[in-house]
Design brief:
Structural class: mainly beta
CATH class of the largest domain: Mainly Beta
Number of helices: 5
Order of helices and strands: EEEEEEEEEEEEEHEEEEHHEEEEEEHH
Number of strands: 23
Helix content: 10-25%
Radius of gyration: 24 Å
Largest sheet: 13 strands, antiparallel
Shape: globular
CATH superfamily of the largest domain: Histone H3 K4-specific methyltransferase SET7/9 N-terminal domain
Number of domains: 2
Distance between the termini: 56 Å
CATH topology of the largest domain: Histone H3 K4-specific methyltransferase SET7/9 N-terminal domain
Length: 389
């Protein structure tokens, strides 16, 4: 008999029931309607391959000593949630977990064999970067990275359960001689552990470098160390993390701090970026220099308009930093070319903000005037071409 039922934490289970127990193909929808799973049940328990679509972030935000009413918002997106094999109601063997990313083929992935409790724990677990080639491989405990080294994927093969398995490059990990990475999320008081402040993400170190910007009066900028295809991660963007309810901490330290000069208040906004989950990331003035902080370099991106823009900001997870932001290329970027993003500031939010970003609005107005003039010339020539934004 085919039927449906609802239980706590699950919105809907749909499948075939035999003597009151699920049997055969099953479809499960989570209580929050974020995740849907296609699975196989035997005598009422999952037993076989399970595919879950819909991502939920793996990493809660850390509680900092100055935290006030920290409200952790679960980050959810479309994409792979889980793929693996269940044995008698519990994950077994090789499994894959999707991590928050822009879209299905821009996700990072957690991969490995689960332990006897069905947890992704052990010394042979991998975080696979969104390019699905670079890897942080080592010790994880229930999806939390404890000690991992940088590797690459050599080959992919399917096992007997039709689950994709990965062969990792390199010799066995040597945690004493190699750079070790671990879960080291920021808070509103720290950017990273002291020993890791200038240890750049290894993927980022192979992908971009900091050099003089081609944009006038912009200092240094990020440049491609290799040819980048559209949709590749160019850089990561971490820093001090302020939760949705922690805005008062940041405001009192910066925006409403009467002891600060106008220049200092303006600096408060230099690297501030909002996230999709209601938090904000900031780089304090003491860590502006690369010699003080280079765990990630996304904050060094310079602003541009129109066709010169070749990247965008998106929500992402990283096993070292947690839920942060990454920069994706929106078009191919050849080796040596600068990565440019549009900051997307808006007028009228607050008079202080309008004053601080006056330089941006002046450049935006200049760009719009130029594009309108080009459009008028095109119309006069018989071509009605709208500006490319």
């Amino acid at each position: 008999m085919r039927g449906k039922c609802s239980i706590p934490e699950i919105n809907l289970i749909s499948g075939f029931f035999r003597n009151g127990e699920l049997e055969g193909s099953v479809y499960i929808i989570s209580e929050d309607n974020i995740q849907g799973s296609a699975a196989v049940a035997v005598k009422g328990v999952l037993h076989g391959r399970v595919l879950t679509i819909g991502m939920k972030s793996h990493y809660p935000y850390p509680m900092a000593k100055n935290t006030i009413n920290f409200n952790y918002n679960q980050v959810t997106m479309n994409g792979l949630g889980f793929y693996g094999y269940f044995l008698n109601g519990r994950a077994s063997g090789t499994v894959w977990y999707g991590m928050v990313g822009h879209e299905l083929n821009k996700q990072g992935l957690l991969y490995g064999k689960v332990d006897s409790k069905g947890k992704l724990s052990g010394s042979d677990i991998s975080y696979i970067y969104p390019n699905h080639f670079n890897v942080l491989h080592g010790v994880f405990e229930d999806r939390i990275m404890k000690a991992a080294v940088y590797r690459h994927i050599l080959e992919l093969n399917c096992n007997k359960d039709s689950i994709l398995e990965v062969k990792i490059s390199g010799k066995p990990s040597n945690m004493e001689t190699e750079q070790v990475y671990f879960y080291d999320p920021p808070s509103n008081t720290t950017l990273a552990s002291p020993s890791m402040l200038i240890i750049e993400d290894p993927y980022e170190a192979e992908t971009i470098y900091l050099s003089k910007s081609g944009i006038p009066n912009s200092g240094d900028g990020l440049h491609a160390k290799r040819d980048l295809e559209a949709g590749e991660v160019g850089a990561w963007y971490s820093g001090a993390l302020f939760g949705e309810k922690e805005g008062n901490i940041w405001n009192n330290a910066c925006r409403f701090n009467a002891s600060l000069s106008a220049k200092s208040i303006a600096y408060c906004y230099k690297y501030r970026i909002s996230t999709y989950h209601g938090a904000l990331i900031d780089i304090p003035v003491d860590y502006d220099e690369e010699s003080r902080y280079r765990s990630t370099l996304g904050h060094k991106m310079n602003n541009g308009f129109g066709n010169e823009v070749n990247t965008g900001f998106y929500q992402a997870e990283h096993p070292r930093f947690g839920t942060i932001v990454y920069i994706l290329t929106t078009k191919p970027v050849p080796k040596g070319k600068e990565l440019i993003v549009n900051y997307g500031y808006s007028r009228g939010l607050h008079h202080t903000v309008d004053q601080i970003f006056e330089w941006y609005f002046a450049l935006e107005d200049e760009y719009n005037r130029k594009k309108e003039k080009e459009r008028e010339l095109n119309m006069a020539s018989g071509f009605d071409t709208k500006p490319q934004i």
